[in-house]
């Protein structure tokens, strides 16, 4: 991992861009991450273990948490679960292991993104920027109306999602991914394109997209092992099919079976 602070000017006074809680028991990693985030204009607090992190979180909720997976005593999964019990907060999980099961479990417990060690601190700052930008974004007027189709309904303003009337517990990225697919039913998107459009990145580990698709299928498909909504187009990417889920999935919704803000698309 890089350990020299970047030679670029701060975009603003530290703290003006938001408050970040960094949780890592490795003092070298924590010091480098804090330094980069501070120089990028963020106010940063540190915690060395789970109980300390939960104490700081309870005292003053941060805008985002950078959370190491391998913490002593209470691991990052448990810390993330307990934080999420008190309401949504963006979480980027750090892991020294590249195992996909760890990434899946991290996303399941509420993490919005993950970064595998060793990593570039500059890239981590860009990830923080991206996650916060998404979390704070206000949907454009023409895209803010409710979305529905194939038994799914999303309210982008309230950030609520349902499947056949049942509430869906979606993370920040899962919600954005599903909303994007609902706005473009029947169109195939590659992983690079989804990463650019949903994550706002032109770089990064494409398995991030794969893991989010898998998690999303587990929440919206009747049988995730045989998905009928979010289809894989082999060698190309993924496509949201709304006409195949049920005979009347697109009834009254116009071509593509989707309604947005009360109008057919």
Overview of the molecule:
The chain has helices at residues 27-39, 50-59, 76-84, 100-108, 121-136, 172-183, 191-199, 207-220, and strands spanning 19-23, 43-47, 64-68, 91-95, 113-116, 147-149, 152-155, 160-163, 166-167, 188-189, 230-233, 237-240, 259-260, 263-264. It has 265 residues and is an alpha/beta fold. The strands form 3 sheets. A 6-stranded antiparallel beta sheet has the order 9-8-7-6-13-14, covered by helices on one side. Helix 1 (27-39) packs across helix 5, helix 6 crosses helix 7 and helix 6 crosses helix 8 (207-220). The protein is globular, with a radius of gyration of 19 Å.
Short structural summary:
This protein has 265 residues and is α/β, with parallel strands linked by helices.
């Amino acid at each position: 991992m890089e350990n020299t602070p970047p030679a670029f000017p701060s975009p603003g006074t530290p703290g003006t861009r938001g408050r970040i809680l960094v949780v890592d028991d490795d003092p070298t990693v924590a010091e480098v991450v804090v330094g980069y985030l501070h120089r990028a204009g963020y106010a940063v607090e540190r915690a060395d273990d789970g109980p300390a992190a939960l104490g700081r979180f309870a005292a003053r909720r941060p805008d985002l948490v950078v959370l190491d997976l391998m913490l002593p005593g209470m691991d990052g999964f448990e810390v993330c679960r307990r934080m999420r019990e008190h309401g949504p907060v963006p979480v980027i999980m750090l892991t020294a292991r590249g195992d996909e099961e760890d990434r899946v479990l991290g996303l399941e417990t509420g993490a919005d993104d993950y970064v595998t060690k060793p990593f570039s601190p500059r890239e981590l700052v860009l990830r923080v920027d991206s996650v916060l930008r998404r979390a704070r974004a206000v949907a454009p007027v023409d895209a803010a109306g409710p979305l529905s189709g194939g038994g799914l309904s999303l309210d982008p303003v309230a950030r609520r999602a349902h499947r056949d009337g049942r509430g869906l517990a979606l993370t920040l990225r899962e919600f954005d991914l599903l909303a994007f697919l609902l706005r473009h039913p029947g169109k195939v998107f590659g992983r690079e394109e989804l990463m650019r459009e949903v994550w706002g990145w032109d770089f990064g580990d494409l398995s991030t997209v794969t893991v989010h698709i898998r998690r999303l299928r587990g929440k919206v498909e009747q049988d995730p092992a045989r998905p009928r909504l979010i289809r894989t187009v082999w060698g190309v990417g993924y496509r949201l099919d709304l006409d195949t889920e049920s005979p009347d999935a697109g009834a009254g919704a116009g071509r593509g079976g989707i309604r947005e803000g009360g109008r057919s698309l």
